[in-house]
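Re: the pair you flagged

First of the two:
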Amino acid sequence: AQLTAVGIPVMGHVGLTPQSVHQLGYRQQGKTVEAGERIFQEAIALSDAGAFAIVLEHIPADLAGRITQKIPIPTIGIGAGPQCDGQVLVTTDVLGLSDRLPPFAKSYVNLRQIITQA
C-alpha cells in the first residue's frame, strides 16, 4: 500500500513465483485447501493494497476463477486456466530458450538448440 500511495504502479503476483520455483521447482501452487485459501487471501490483500492487476501463475483453474470473480482488478493467467481476464505466454518458453519448460507451457521451436549449434 505504501508504494501505491506514492503513485508507484504495482502489479501483484501470486501462485508460482520465482522464490517458490527456487525452493520447490515448477510445482502447481494452491492445490490443498489451505494453500488455495492462502493464495486467495494474498490476491485480495494485493487488490486492497492498490495493485492495478495480479498475475496468477500455475494455480488450479477453479482457484483462478474464484479470485477473478472476487477482486475488481484484472487477473492475468500464466498456466492458471481460462477464467482469468487475460493470458500470458512467456517468450523464453514459447521460443524454447529455457533449459526447463514449466509443465503448463508450450514451446513452438527449440531456439536454445539452434543457437548453441550455430
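Second of the two:
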Amino acid sequence: MIERVLQLPLELERIDLAPLEMLTPSGWTRRSTVVRLRGGGATGEGEDVTYDAAAQGTFQSGGLEALGALVGSRTVGEFSERLTQVDLHPGPARDQWSRHYRIWALESAALALALTQAEVDLGQLLGREPQPVRFAISTGLGTPPSLATLERFLDAYPEARFKVDLGADWTRATVADLAALGRVDVVDLKGLYRADFAGPPADAEQYRWVAELLPDCWLEDPELTPRTRAVLEPHMDRVTWDGAIHGLADLDGLERAPRCVNLKPSRSGTIAEYLRVVQACESRGIAMYGGGQFELGPGRRQIQALAAIFHPRGPNDVAPGGFNRAELPRDLGRSPLAPPRFAGA
C-alpha cells in the first residue's frame, strides 16, 4: 500500500499559499493556511493546521522562498525526502508537532496533485471502495456544563451523535444527563494535553462516573495515575488513544494493545508514517476512527476521504467544518456523509 503511493509520479511547477480563518462559538479565531501545488494543468491542495496564529502569518508571508526548492519532477516518495532538506519554518516552530503539521500540508497536497495527474483517486489506487462516513460532532458542554450545546445541534440535525470533551466541573448529574440523552459515542478525557489545550486535572471519581454511566462509550486519552488506573481497569477495553499516537512507534509503545485508536493524519507528518499506523492497526485488529484538527478547508475534506477508505463506520471526528461556526448552518452534510474522494482540487 505504501509503495503504491510513494511511487506515484509528480510534476510540480508552482506553489501558492492562501490564508483561511473562522470565528468560533467561543470567540476564538481559528487560522490555517491552504497549500496549493500546481503542475500539468492540475492542482493539489493541503492545509497547515498549526494552531499558532503568528506562525501561520509568518508562513503565509515568508514561506514561499524556501518552498521553491520543491519544484520539479519526482515521485511522491522523492518529494517527501526532499522536504527533509527544506527549511519549512521561516520563523521558529512552536514545537515538533507544528513541523509535522506543515509536512502533512505539503505531502497531502503533493499526493492530491499526483493522483489528479494520474487520473485516479486514492481509493482506486489502493483498490478500496470508499464508504459513507459516519461522524460524531466534537464539542464541550461549556461552563457550567449544560446540554444546551448538544440540544442546539440536535434541533437542526436530529440524527447527530457526539464526541464530548470532559470538563473540570462535570458532576455525576452531568454524566447522567448525557447517558439519558443517548447520543454520546466518545468522551475525551483530555488527559494527555498540556499548555493551551490542557484538560481538567485527572479526577478518579469523574472517570468512574463516565465509565459506569456511559458503558457504551469510548474513553479517550485518560491520564493514568494510580487512582484513575484502578478505576479504569475494568473498562480498559474501552480506553482509546488520540494524543499519544503520532506514529507507529507510539502505537507499539502503548503498555497494552488498545481495541481502538483515534488517528489524526497530520500528527504523523508524512504520508508514509500515517499509512504505517493504518497498516499496523489493520493487521492487529485495532479499530480506528478519524480525528480532526479544526481544519477549515481542504484538510477537512481529506480526513473525511481517508475515513471513507480506512474506517468509515467509526465515530469519526470529521464532521463538516460548519459545525464549528458561531452561527450553525442548517445545510451541512448529515451522517453518514457521501464518501468523498481523495484527489486534487
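The first helix runs from residue 2 to 6.

-B.
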